[in-house]
Design goal:
Helix 3 packs antiparallel against helix 4 and helix 4 (76-83) crosses helix 6. A two-stranded antiparallel sheet has the order 1-4. Strands 2-3 form a two-stranded antiparallel ribbon. The protein is 51% helix and 7% strand. The chain has helices spanning 10-18, 21-32, 58-71, 76-83, 111-125, 128-142; strands at 56-57, 89-91, 97-99, 108-109. The chain is mainly alpha-helical. The N and C termini lie far apart (85 Å).
Length: 143
């Protein structure tokens, strides 16, 4: 009785095609041309145009802040402050209570004025850490 192995050996496949120059040439053409890469996977360069921070959604603001954080142009504290959700209610510098419960991720909102008002309030209270963070947020939004 004869026993044979049923396992596939890549060496057998190599031997089969080692003498076939047509097969080797097609493999060389297939794997050597890097220039035929599809433009579908090309990453577009970041545009330098700044969005209008006086009418931007919270999701768009976070995405823009994330891109700048990834690029290294935005520090972690500023990114964290921008990424925080808005409170349901806040006060403006004159002491009026503002209802922000209707502002969602898809709602346009004037973040520039909101953070400027919060900076004025923090400066009047005298919290140096909050003032420092809000100054960096306002400077990011004013660029």
């Amino acid at each position: 009785m004869e026993i044979t192995s049923l396992r596939f050996s890549p060496n057998l496949s190599f031997r089969k095609y080692s003498d076939n120059s047509q097969f080797n040439n097609s493999l060389t053409e297939t794997f050597s041309s890097v220039s035929n890469a599809s433009s579908t996977f090309r990453i577009d360069e970041a545009t330098s145009a700044q969005p209008d921070f006086s009418a931007i959604t919270a999701a768009d603001l976070r995405n823009h802040a994330r891109q700048n954080f990834d690029n290294g142009t935005l520090d972690q504290d500023t990114y964290a402050a921008i990424s925080e959700p808005l409170p349901m209610r806040t006060i403006d510098p004159s002491g009026n209570i503002l209802d922000l419960s209707d502002v969602t991720d898809g709602t346009s909102f004037n973040f520039r004025d909101y953070y400027k008002d919060q900076l004025q309030i923090a400066m009047s209270i005298g919290d140096p850490e909050t003032v420092k963070t809000l100054k960096s947020v306002v400077s990011f939004l004013d660029v």
